[in-house]
Task: inverse folding
């Protein structure tokens, strides 16, 4: 079953990294909320008092634990509890002004347990902005993507680029950062040594370390530039008809509708419509009510 494969969230929110299982001994709620706010890269103006934050967090925690306990014997009741837990955690974001990778990760896990794959992927993607190298998060996101109804074939151009620039596409940002640091250290160490003993640092070492360092630095800069001005989103409705223009009167772009969990890049916003680009580079228009943006500031 899907539920056995999913990594359970660290509902106690002990740290900025999600845990593989729920904590048996949660931290005092006041300490948890202070830590959560401190670890958040973005803290919005709070519309909830400290006591309300503590209460909502406690309710969400308790609901999720009850859902875990009932999931095997009463899956219908458990699904309702997971949904209620997700709503409590979302209040911490929307009304409490707290944005944190671990919190989004927990929301995503709760929605996945309700089979709401669209909102699960949406919140995993939001969590990825804060904890991009978390292995549990990446595993859950990839697993959720495998359950989608829509599939998109990679273009030939994308296949060629992925093959030629494999380090950019296949290596995580963390690994590329580490490799850049290593090759940079080797390069500058070799340069320093050659100033005194040229025979101790061969030219090939300078060349290889310099080129490799430049490759990983270029990859990191390119990724940062791409994400800086890019608006991305996820379809959250069960299905939506993609159209050739920004209105219901336009013809459908495709034979079949798009389904929940489909990810896209926003090309243009026009009224209540998004012009989007799908993973296979096809473009279409969808109503904004059927999707949510990953970039919450857009």
Result:
């Amino acid at each position: 079953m899907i539920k056995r494969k999913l990594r359970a969230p660290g509902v106690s929110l002990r740290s900025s990294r999600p845990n593989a299982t729920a904590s048996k001994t949660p931290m005092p709620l006041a300490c948890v909320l202070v830590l959560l706010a401190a670890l958040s890269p973005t803290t919005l103006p709070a519309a909830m008092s400290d006591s309300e934050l503590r209460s909502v967090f406690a309710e969400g925690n308790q609901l999720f634990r009850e859902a875990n306990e009932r999931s095997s014997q009463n899956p219908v009741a458990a699904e309702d509890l997971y949904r209620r837990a997700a709503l409590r955690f979302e209040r911490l974001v929307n009304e409490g002004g707290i944005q944190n990778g671990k919190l989004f990760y927990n929301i995503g896990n709760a929605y996945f347990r309700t089979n709401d794959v669209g909102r699960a992927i949406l919140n995993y993607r939001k969590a990825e902005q804060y904890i991009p190298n978390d292995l549990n998060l990446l595993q859950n996101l990839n697993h959720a993507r495998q359950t989608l109804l829509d599939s998109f074939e990679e273009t030939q151009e994308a296949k060629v680029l992925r093959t030629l620039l494999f380090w950019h596409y296949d290596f995580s940002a963390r690994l590329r950062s580490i490799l850049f640091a290593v090759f940079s250290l080797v390069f500058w160490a070799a340069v320093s040594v050659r100033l005194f003993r040229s025979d101790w640092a061969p030219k090939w070492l300078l060349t290889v370390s310099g080129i490799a360092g430049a490759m990983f630095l270029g990859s990191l800069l390119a990724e940062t530039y791409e994400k800086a001005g890019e608006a991305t989103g996820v379809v959250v409705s069960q299905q939506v008809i993609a159209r050739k223009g920004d209105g219901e009167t336009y013809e459908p772009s495709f034979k079949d509708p798009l389904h929940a969990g489909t990810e896209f890049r926003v090309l243009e916003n026009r009224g209540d419509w998004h012009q989007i680009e799908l993973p296979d580079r096809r473009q279409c228009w969808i109503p904004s009510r059927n999707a949510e943006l990953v970039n919450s500031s857009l």
